[in-house]
Write a structure and sequence with these properties.
Elements: H1 4-8, E1 14-17, E2 29-36, E3 45-53, H2 57-62, H3 73-85, E4 91-97, H4 99-107, H5 114-131, E5 136-142, H6 147-157, E6 162-166, H7 174-192, H8 215-223, H9 240-249, H10 263-268, H11 295-299
Parallel strand pairs: 2-5, 5-6
Antiparallel strand pairs: 1-4, 2-3, 3-4
Helix pairs in contact: 3-7
Pfam family, one: RNase_HII
Domain RNase H type-2: 28-251
Keywords: Endonuclease, Hydrolase, Metal-binding, Nuclease
Length: 308
């Protein structure tokens, strides 16, 4: 599994895939869908598909794949190796959804919740398999939201394919278990080798499970909260855990809007308007700046302007 394309820019989502076995282009195939990392406040969510000919279901079962959550990291790695060694009849694909993609999607002006993002990602992976020539006749999915509605939605989108959506499908159908293993192995590797674009120096990698209720995760979030610029892109800043910490620990800033009178409203609250951060410093010029700008601005080549 080459994670290079995602490591090169982990601020955006990325699709990775195996070679498509020739037999999957000529025989009826089944496909499983599952995800890893839906709940953590740290790191990406990874959606995975795994597919093989219907005639090879027993062979897949003989590999003793299981729900990835019931396996140790070593067991998952060993099973992924077995799946990779069976590349003559097993294929897989992954969609790595970066923390930045998840948060900006959820906080955009037109609401795009995690369930909708999950559905669209799963649909995109099924379409990828079809576009790659995989002869899909059966799809098995671990449900997101009401199983019946999700099953109906997928059945309408992919007529001619028998769709089965079930809670805990990763423990019921080996092909979903295999997808679960692919997704979890990818997420574990990405989290362990995360490239911090923010140049934080030697970053403490002891961030626990990444789940909001983990004490180690909470301690890490407090340690790496910048009071002005918030969190590195490793953190899903749309999660309530991150938002609560930012609200309580960060510098208070007044955001101008149409319902308030900007700077005056900020002054009444003994606060600073966001616009004040972009205004020219009194007595300063381009040659002798009052202070060095934060790398947030220099990385994006942003400068204060006196006039447009």
């Amino acid at each position: 599994m080459d994670l290079g394309p995602f490591d090169a820019d982990n601020s955006v989502s990325c699709r990775l895939s195996s070679h498509i076995p020739d037999v999957c282009k000529t025989e009826d195939c089944c496909l499983g869908i599952d995800e890893a990392g839906r709940g953590p406040v740290l790191g990406p969510m990874v959606y995975g598909i795994c597919f093989c000919p219907v005639s090879k279901k027993d062979d897949l079962k003989d590999l003793k794949v299981a729900d990835s959550k019931t396996l140790t990291e070593t067991e998952r790695e060993n099973l992924f190796q077995k799946l990779d060694e069976a590349r003559s009849y097993i294929g897989w694909a992954l969609q790595i959804l970066s923390p930045n993609t998840i948060s900006t999607s959820m906080l955009q002006r037109s609401k795009y919740n995690l369930n909708a993002l999950s559905h669209d990602t799963a649909i995109g992976l099924v379409q990828y398999a079809l576009d790659s020539g995989v002869q899909l006749t059966e799809v098995f999915v671990d449900t997101v939201g009401p199983a019946e509605k999700y099953e109906e939605k997928l059945s309408q989108l992919f007529p001619g394919v028998k769709v089965t959506v079930r809670p805990k499908a990763d423990s019921l159908f080996p092909v979903v278990s295999a997808a679960s293993i692919c997704a979890k192995v990818a997420r574990d590797r990405v989290v362990k080798g995360w490239n911090f674009a923010e140049q934080l120096g030697e970053v403490d990698s002891d961030y626990g499970s990444g789940y909001p209720n983990d004490p180690k995760t909470k301690a890490w979030l407090l340690k790496y909260l910048d009071p002005v610029f918030g969190y590195p892109q490793f953190v899903r800043f749309s999660w309530s855990t991150a938002q609560t910490l930012m609200d309580s620990k960060s510098v208070t800033v007044h955001w101008d809007d149409d319902d308030e009178d900007g700077e005056k409203a900020a002054q009444r609250q003994n606060n600073r308007s966001m616009l004040s951060y972009f205004s020219a410093s009194s007595g300063a010029n381009d040659q002798t700046p009052a202070h060095q700008p934060h790398r947030f601005f220099t990385d994006r080549r942003l400068k204060s302007l006196d006039a447009l």
